[in-house]
Amino acid sequence: MNGVSTKAERPVRVLVVDDDPQMRSALERLLRLRGLETDSAFDGQDAVERLAVAAFDVVLCDVNMPRMGGPELLDHVVGSRLSCQVILMTGLQDLRSAVGAMRRGAFGLIAKPFASHQEVLVQVLDAARVNRLRE
How is domain 11-130 classified at the architecture level of CATH? Predict the structure, then answer.
């Protein structure tokens, strides 16, 4: 486009939020292999600090974490009117909390353990597409 960069051309940026370091690392590897840019946070409070200084298209977030869990992080994103989509990840024990968060504006919900890596990629790319359309 005549050398002019548009927002649509920038790489998709995903913030991975999970208190399990192995899960964070695995998700970041998966997303980077598909050409997405990633950053990670230990919990919701750490994510709030990262969201204050950088823009992301998607926040991929566990429901149950110390200090601030996924539903509280979602409330922060929605209340702050941040331009990103939130996808919650949860085990069956947290399903009720996650369903409530869906009603409050989460883009999607992924059950842990994941059925496939493809499931994660499809949701993240769909959420990024919706976010870009809103911009």
Answer: 3-Layer(aba) Sandwich (3.40)
Which of 68, 39, 41, 60 is closest to 110 using CA atoms?
60
Distance CA 6, CA 111 (A): 34
Q: Does pLDDT of 79 surpass 60?
A: yes
Closest CA to 88 of 52, 63, 115: 63
Is the confidence at residue 6, as pLDDT, over 50?
no
Domain ranges of the chain: 11-130
SS (H, E, C) the chain: CCCCCCHHHCCCEEEEECCCHHHHHHHHHHHHHCCCEEEEECCHHHHHHHHCCCCCCEEEEECCCCCCCHHHHHHHHHHCCCCCEEEEEECHHHHHHHHHHHHCCCCEEEECCCCCHHHHHHHHHHHHHHHHHHC
| Single pTM value for the model | 0.89
